[in-house]
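Structure, all two chains, one model.
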Amino acid sequence: MTQLFDRNRALLDGALQAMKTRAFWTPFPEVPSGRFYGETAREDGETAFSDLLGKSFELNGHPCEYHVGKEQSPWGLDLALTYPSASAETLISASQSAFQVWSKNSIHARMGVLLEALVRLNKMSFLIGHATVHATGQGFAMAFQAGGPHAQDRGLEAVAAAYAELTATADRAIWEKPQGRREPIVLEKEWTIVPRGIALTIGCNTFPCWNAYPGLFASLATGNTVIVKPHPMAILPLAITVGVLRQVLEEEGLPADSVLLAADEPEAQATQELVQAPETKLIDYTGSSIFGNWVRSHSGDALVFAEETGVNSVVITGTDDFRGMCANLAFSLALYSGQMCTSPQNIYVPEGGVKTNEGAKSFDEVFAGIAGAIDQLLADPKQASGICGTIVNPVTIDRLKNACSAGRILRKSGQTGVGRSATPLIVAVGEDDSLHKDECFGPVVFAIATKSAEEAIDHAANLAMKKGAITAALYATDNGLIDTAAKAFCLAGANLSVNLTGNIYVNQSAAFSDFHVTGANPAGNASLTDTAFVAQRFRRVMVRWPKGKVTRPASALS
Amino acid sequence: MTQLFDRNRALLDGALQAMKTRAFWTPFPEVPSGRFYGETAREDGETAFSDLLGKSFELNGHPCEYHVGKEQSPWGLDLALTYPSASAETLISASQSAFQVWSKNSIHARMGVLLEALVRLNKMSFLIGHATVHATGQGFAMAFQAGGPHAQDRGLEAVAAAYAELTATADRAIWEKPQGRREPIVLEKEWTIVPRGIALTIGCNTFPCWNAYPGLFASLATGNTVIVKPHPMAILPLAITVGVLRQVLEEEGLPADSVLLAADEPEAQATQELVQAPETKLIDYTGSSIFGNWVRSHSGDALVFAEETGVNSVVITGTDDFRGMCANLAFSLALYSGQMCTSPQNIYVPEGGVKTNEGAKSFDEVFAGIAGAIDQLLADPKQASGICGTIVNPVTIDRLKNACSAGRILRKSGQTGVGRSATPLIVAVGEDDSLHKDECFGPVVFAIATKSAEEAIDHAANLAMKKGAITAALYATDNGLIDTAAKAFCLAGANLSVNLTGNIYVNQSAAFSDFHVTGANPAGNASLTDTAFVAQRFRRVMVRWPKGKVTRPASALS
């Protein structure tokens, strides 16, 4: 049973080491190339994806009372896929049965299953890439990374963090207490890892794998069984994931129902019933704060790990590489049409303009530079479509239209020509306006003039503190301003990127190095993946006895 | 500033090592003897205690709008002590000011202050012992241990756990991402520890130091400032503690207000206002579930770590040392008159009796053995008073009287002759009765007959699962029963002690080895001291920049 652990041990060790040093590391190549994934990987992935369409997705032995599925790709494709599903009651009952076995497994057996599943998922990254394209409306390159290797990185990170914590203290001890001249008291002690129970992973539409894997793998690694509740429009990537996990479990003679899929349809969502079930003890949630608040107030004594609404800002106070800055921001703003939890929304620039290597630039000139860089980036329709992807939710288009009248338009939103698309709108608003003070999810960028650079930092950081923010970016040449911003965003709990140019973007959060979300502002109460994210998913319970006077009890959960 | 850290480094290293191996370790001798604490320590402690009485307790520079204090010792002594105090608003404001400095300290400077304070508190253990005697009504030997070295152990444990977690990942990294044939992307990253804010430690009447130190030291170690709210009848031990911490802080040029005392009086308690203050971000609470529920529902977004009500059980199914078992249980039941969160309350014995090394014993004979052992233990009035201490809350006497009519009395409660006292009552009740199914705090023991040994285990474990339990004890000679009990109590989240005899008791929980409270049943949501207890008290926030392109920002919180 620990054969899988031994086989994948290097993977775990690499992750554990990287998570300590926070240096760059990944076992899963992010480039969708045959060089890494095999000559035929690209075609195989396409074929595998096509073969799935129009059928009932197979999940061997999964509870099935009916089939559901109404996924429509934002790219226009009707997936015509259905999935086996069942009532919350049935799923919970199946999860409870599986818990009796899965929870009692050795740590190494559990780790082996999860590491092996990640390795197999990695080999399927082209298929998962296509599934993610049509679930999220992302371009292929991004969907491959976010649904494939980057999500797998985050899954592995969670497994490694759990392993570190599960093995941090001895599971057996001889405790010998001196008694002066008398014989010492000698106890034997043994600790059992007791998982919480059933965990619910609530997936989102935009990053079904990337946002679900941390909670899913952390809960499984700590011995809980998991019900994966995908967004009704983004089922396939998680169905594939659940399928792989179930297959490895089955091969190991473990209950496949340790991981279940709660597929549903937009009109008949199963989330609320699963959240409210008293058997649900852990919930991982990514989505709006509105539903997040509902989850928190209806989840009883379940622990809720949430990533929610926020407003990410960029503060521009100066740069010694104006073109580099504009190009970098252009990509950050255009990428997936601002539909990332890490996408910048507000750009603060002093009303008097800023100094750059190209001379002084007025407020309008700064945004003209950024708008020009976006135009250039998206000049080629195919590239534009690949970068911007599509707009996954039609409501986003309404929000965009509404924002057009919020102020002076500095860049009009256009279309890529493929699917339901929208390129970044840039609209200048006053600091006293209100629209930019809440999340305006999608390709909407607010340009905000401030009296000074200090005020720009102050306003952006204060908004992060109040409304939440996952990322922040600063462009500055003045060390004093960099210090000020570092302090302000630190207190606001937003990770800050300074003077990024070239092929690295504020939107990007690298597993094993960047903690994604700090937990220190309203954008989320959990951080991927810190110790708090895994340590609360299980408990230790002891049995102790005078040494030699009792035969060691059978391991309490075995 | 790290001189204190270097001086006390061995203490920290010892704790870190012990917490991994869970073997016996303590730097603080538990025997109240001049051999360990110095020839004159005993007398010095008595003198120091007497010198405090009838005066206003000095806390240099502590916010003071008025003096409060109505502590009455359960032993009869009027302490006539008052303490400087102030409104919640004033205390919070002072705590916030201190936070600006304390939170920005280096980890090592913080650790140095806390380790030094623990060492100084240890030297004051005789004084703290006397203060604890009169706060709690415990006998001196117990008060010395529980208020002194054992509490200091728990404080050190929390400091070490925090240190391990704070230093678990690098605070700086060079992140170099390969870009194929192109130059790699190289970022510098830096993480700042961001504490949550103000922490509130709500002390209890019975173990003011032991139960307060873990939260107090964990919050301080992770950079939060703390307001200590003692029980109005048990202020002195925590006032001494706060005084020592403030003195070390002052000597180090750090704000003494990093630790504040919120002393109050029974009729005008300050707890509720402090719990409800939005500035309060962490709460450590020990007490009843009734007030615990109030705290949870009124604490906003503050994290609450709680130890609450529970029902601890003993299951007797057989023994090969009947006298040893009876003597061991007698001490566990008599110690501090059952006023420990770890004291057994229910004793389950099969109705058909059990096998022992003295032959078969009927249900009544088992309890006759225990009752006899209690009588023998308490035969000497002075020893009886030392072991039983006093009844700290008069309501406990009412509860005891009420329990007398619950069933057939197997041992009458008596008095020790000193103070408000009560020795253990043993009353036989039916499993269908109700009184034993909730916590009946104090010297009340319910004897419950079950159909079988298996049913005894089942009923006790089920009650632990439903109503909470911190400890459980089993006496058995049958390996199958031991296995069954180990499994049942593990699932119920109660630490189980098997076949204890001699000088080690189910009530005892040793720092660095036993996790006190599992967090896996209603008796508490936190475990002393696991990683979850410390990891949630702070967050990490990053700033990153292209290597070489930005001068390293001044540490974000400095």
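Chain A touches chain B through 75 residues (CB under 8 Å).
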